[in-house]
């Protein structure tokens, strides 16, 4: 369902909301599926137990001054797969204001969520602040992928500020922040930063199974690091020359560290 979107002098404010619940028959129902403006939602075919939702861009966004919010809640025992139909382009606005893109995921007891959007492209002249927050119950499972591309082909990037935080059972699990592009602190693209790479991403896997068999720290290829977290979780961070190679690295990580993928 799509409703009218408030348009202010500063830009568009729009939200998309998803609520998934176990249907009592081994599947997952979606009693709430609502999007506004550029955030259109479509139900897709999932597995027998999992509901699939696709985020479809209905208009160009986010532009400078826009504030977009995606909220998804998975109730006890629900299984939800969230994806996007295409890459998200952060575009400059007329007034030079920053844009905001917030994602809030809430996973209750026994829930499982996969948040696998297509890459975010930081276009030259844009200014985007991305905030992703995840709240997990102790028995919930999560697979989260973030991919960011600095500029289109042959183009300098915009300013991108991204923060990912996760709590499990009310306790901090991860708090990570990155700023890159014009105006970022010095050295972001140097040897101690991105080292000239144009694509960066991370894969966060949270699974109670790791309590019995925690992953080990390591590397995947030359520019991907595997970091076990203080909880049943692992974080894989990767750099790559382009979006294709980045996806290959993160797909390899998913095959290695997602328990269901190894089964």
TrEMBL record:
Keywords: Chaperone, Cytoplasm, Nickel insertion. The keyword Cytoplasm applies. It is found in: Cytoplasm. It holds the Pfam family UreD. One of its GO terms (molecular function) is nickel cation binding. Its main location: cytoplasm. GO terms for cellular component: cytoplasm. InterPro entries: UreD (IPR002669). It comes from the Bacteria. Required for maturation of urease via the functional incorporation of the urease nickel metallocenter. HAMAP family: UreD (MF_01384). Belongs to the UreD family. UreD, UreF and UreG form a complex that acts as a GTP-hydrolysis-dependent molecular chaperone, activating the urease apoprotein by helping to assemble the nickel containing metallocenter of UreC. The UreE protein probably delivers the nickel. This is Urease accessory protein UreD. It comes from Streptomyces subrutilus.
